[in-house]
Amino acid sequence: MSSFPAARADILQRIRIAVGGNSASRESEYLAIARNYRHQGQATREDVLQLLASRLHDYDAGVYRCTSAEIAQTVATAMKGRGKTSLLRPEQLADEWLPDAMTFPKVDGLPYEDIDRGEGVITDCVAAIAFTGTIILRHGVAEGRRALTLIPDYHLCVVFADQVVETVPEGFARLKGMESLPITTVSGPSATADIEMNRVKGVHGPRFLDVILVG
């Protein structure tokens, strides 16, 4: 059986042939597209962090600021604020982030039903985009498989200041070399609205999101 990246490349190549092009011409056409938008952030580091916090607040997410030495204490504060005593965790999440008073079962190998029964999940991330208030998960060893951040009703995410960029192009630049990994982007708690604008939370992921911004 072909791997997913190989199968995807094969399908895309067939599409290119069907529409009368080839990979070389398509690549040159892509590179020729005018990109007049801003590629680099211009704000100060603190302004970028404040922008991210503001966007997350607008999306109804909780935001906590702390130093590296205060992560475990802040995790405990966030969990108490949500009435949580236990959060699922990926296999290689940093132990020093986890307060002793709570429990953090490792999620690797758990069936979906057990993940659904958990009180929530704690992960880190690979990057965050301040302009859109977006957290980027690459589903590596410290973020866990995608189900971990889609099934539970609550997500607590640890984001370090040096992971935060201002613009979307800078965010995509952080993903270079990760093309074969599953990526999830999170802009606030999951929510959607019907044609009458009745808003419903938790349709595509957690209803509640808290972010611990470190640094």
Describe this structure as you would to a colleague.
It is a single chain. It is globular and about 60 Å long. With 215 residues, it is of the alpha/beta class. The longest helix has 15 residues. The protein folds into two domains: 33 residues, no CATH class; 174 residues, Rossmann fold, CATH 3.40.50.10420. The protein is built from six helices and ten strands, in the order αααβααβββββαββββ. The mean pLDDT is 88.
What would you report as the Rg, rounded to the nearest angstrom? 19 Å
Level-1 CATH class name of the largest domain? Alpha Beta
**Count of DSSP-assigned helices:** 6
Low-confidence residue ranges:
none
* Straight-line N-to-C gap: 45 Å
Number of DSSP strand runs: 10
The helical percent reads: 25-40%
CATH homologous superfamily grouping of the largest domain: NagB/RpiA/CoA transferase-like
Order of helices and strands: HHHEHHEEEEEHEEEE
Biggest β-sheet: count, sense, barrel? 4 strands, parallel
Spatial sequence of strands, sheet with the most strands: 1-10-5-2
User: How many domains comprise the coordinates?
Assistant: 2
Proper CATH architecture of the largest domain: 3-Layer(aba) Sandwich
Mean pLDDT: 88
The global form is globular
Assembly category: single chain
